[in-house]
Amino acid sequence: MQIHLSSVAILYTLKVTRIHHNGFLSGGIEGPNPVLRALPTIALFLLCHLFFSVIARSATTHAAQSNQHPGSLLANSVSLALSVLCFAILFTGLHKINLGVLVSQRSRFRFGHFAISFFPYLTLIGISAVFLLSDWREGPDLSRGITWWSMSILLIHTTLLASLEELLFRSYLPKVLSSALNTQWLAILFTSLVFAVVHLPGKQMNSTGDWWTMGYLIAIGFFLCLLAEASSGIEFGLGIHTANNFGWLALNGVGLTSGPTSELPDVGPWSIISPFVAIFILIFYSRRKRDEIQI
């Protein structure tokens, strides 16, 4: 019964997206030779991102030895900010178009769409933690020295990371591959596979859990691409992505769970199901409101 319901939900989601085909991903990137221009863009970005990451790793190692968790987050946040800036410069310089085309079809950031997905989903995480968290503590662990400053840095860090990933995996790569392969679905599937591989560093794929994680990451990447297509932009996905990372990490950060501050707490199947539920709802919302409401 559960398999049947899941199949119906997936097929209906694909049907909704196909009917309301907005061309955000399949339209590719305008301009001469977008695929050839993408190759140096990606290569130079990866080199710069690696360079910034090495510097950040050195800084975070020093901060960790000094027991300065906010310092580690700040170093990583600066590294991410430089990576986002680097990608923006490379994209606009080599493709000769505004970065806004990767954000939405209207070439501008729709904060309303971000807020609609970020704040309700963050609230849902808080409610879920109270009722479902298996290692919930009675109060915050003050020995971790968590402050509003560190929580602010965590929010900045998760927003920057989600922004970089949404730009790359839910817009840029699908657009480039759609132009190269002349098919949207293969582009989305391949991008989702790359997204999953990037999030599995050090995994040997020799256990059932590793393969389940791989499958989950491919599926979440695939449906986030569908959400970007349905809503003609990455703002909804960015809101869910940021809220998910910030919400769960903040619970550990304030010591309300017993796990490490850098890992997500264990909430069982709901932590896996809830992002898909949110994505489905936002796809349906995009279908009903895309021509009626401009946020």
Write the layout of secondary structure elements.
Elements: H1 2-19, H2 34-65, H3 69-95, H4 100-103, H5 111-132, H6 148-181, H7 184-198, H8 208-231, H9 235-253, H10 270-289
Helix pairs in contact: 1-10, 2-3, 3-6, 5-9, 6-7, 6-8, 6-9, 7-8, 8-10, 9-10
**Share in β-strands:** under 5%
Number of contiguous helices? 10
Helical content class: over 70%
Q: Are there runs of 5+ residues with pLDDT below 50, and where?
A: none
What's the N-to-C terminus distance? Answer: 38 Å
Structural class: mainly alpha
Largest sheet: none
> How many whole angstroms does the radius of gyration measure?
19 Å
Record keyword descriptors for this entry:
single chain, 295 residues, mainly alpha, 73% helix
